[in-house]
Design goal:
5-stranded mixed sheet; elongated
């Protein structure tokens, strides 16, 4: 009988769970060296003297391991909270409550005012027993500062990009409401077209912010279905021609047969739209779009490669490493600088990759690859 059947029959015996395996292998046999850890590690013995001070701790605190080992931990690692109080006196790991198991991560200050993220673990030989080991973890706050700066830049950019169209919308609508009879139909139409364009700009910015949020949190949702990538390229080119571009500005080269592609058509349209718009707006001469299957000798996966290149001045070598970062705009201002960051996130969410380089004519060349992405139930 199964466990579920015994419960239904009225049996009350619980099925014992297997004990979690213990790892008794000494650290040396595991090949674990404290200096291999990415975070700072400080360990003090039962007397409060430092017995381990790894390389990351030395880098973060600017204290040499030989100056810390064997010394009391409060001397080797003099920490203060943001109000200037000595942290070891506040927490008192050796003389405080024996039921404490550690300290959560918090911002503390090293001598000189440098911030560091500190957490602690109290190791006892038995519950509520004396402290056997004090294990302190240290992390630099530079990564957090970079994240905070990035968020601040994003907020400032969004505020700036929203202010201009919203001011325009407010100004034109207020003017029309106050002086409707004074304007001709052509003037009214021009004002309303401007309001419509600015509203589209705000909508596009909000959509970009939502995409960034989903990409950063790993929640970009893909609705995969069969996609004809060649037809999608043709639609975007026709859209540019309808907007006034010369038909001979575009050259499409298809290498058949292309493998069947399962992807999110809206997201792929977003990628193509951004790359073609950049080539048209910032590049010069002919915009060439190559669509071909992934070469078997270069990739173990079956998929499609799309290359968009122009004949303009191209992207400087020193800037190529920043093309797919937030707010990169190149030499010409305009836009939010978020488009290529979103493009990269979309391509990678599909399991593909995107690169930038110089085209045959010296202009910018973007190449992205997409694996076939066939859903599991069709395999």
């Amino acid at each position: 009988m199964s466990v579920g059947t015994r419960r239904q029959a009225g049996a009350h015996r619980s099925v014992p769970r297997p004990a979690a395996p213990r790892i008794d292998t000494p650290p040396g046999e595991l090949g674990l060296d404290p200096d291999d850890l990415p975070d700072g590690l400080v360990v003090a013995d039962e007397k409060g003297r430092v017995v381990c001070f790894n390389a990351a701790a030395a880098r973060i605190t600017a204290v040499r391991p030989e100056d810390a080992l064997g010394h009391p931990v409060e001397e080797a690692l003099p920490l203060e909270d943001l109000e200037g109080r000595r942290w070891w006196q506040l927490t008192d790991p050796y003389g405080g409550l024996a039921i404490r198991t550690g300290q959560p991560e918090r911002n503390l200050l090293l001598p000189g005012g440098r911030e560091v993220l500190v957490s602690a673990r109290y190791v006892r030989t038995r519950p509520t027993g004396p402290l056997h080991r004090l294990v302190v973890s240290l992390r630099d706050t530079e990564a957090r500062r970079r994240t905070e700066r990035s968020h601040a830049e994003l907020i400032a950019t969004v505020a700036h990009e929203l202010r201009s169209p919203l001011t325009s919308v407010k100004g034109f609508t207020a003017t029309l409401l106050a002086k409707w009879e004074r304007f001709t139909d052509d003037q009214k139409k021009l004002m309303l077209e401007t309001v419509d364009a600015d509203a589209n700009r705000v909508t596009r910015l909000i959509a970009e912010l939502l995409d960034i949020s989903r990409i950063d949190s790993g929640r970009l949702e893909l609705r995969r279905q069969p996609v004809d990538i060649a037809a999608a390229v043709g639609r975007h080119i026709q859209s540019h021609i309808a907007a006034g571009q010369a038909p001979d500005r575009f050259l499409v080269r298809l290498q058949q047969p292309l493998p069947d592609l399962w992807a999110d058509p809206d997201k792929i349209d977003q990628v193509l739209s951004n790359l073609l718009e950049n080539a048209v707006r910032h590049g010069e001469g002919t915009v060439t779009i190559d669509v071909a299957p992934l070469p078997k000798e270069h990739s173990p996966l079956e998929g499609t490669a799309v290359t968009v290149s122009d004949e303009g001045p191209g992207i400087p070598e020193e800037s190529m490493g920043r093309v797919f970062t937030r707010f990169w705009r190149g030499s010409k201002r305009g836009g939010t600088g978020l488009g290529l960051y979103i493009v990269k996130g979309i391509v990678e969410a599909h399991g593909g990759s995107i690169t930038v380089g110089r085209g045959p004519s010296g202009g910018a060349e973007f190449r992205f690859t997409l694996p076939v992405g066939t859903p599991g139930y069709l395999l």
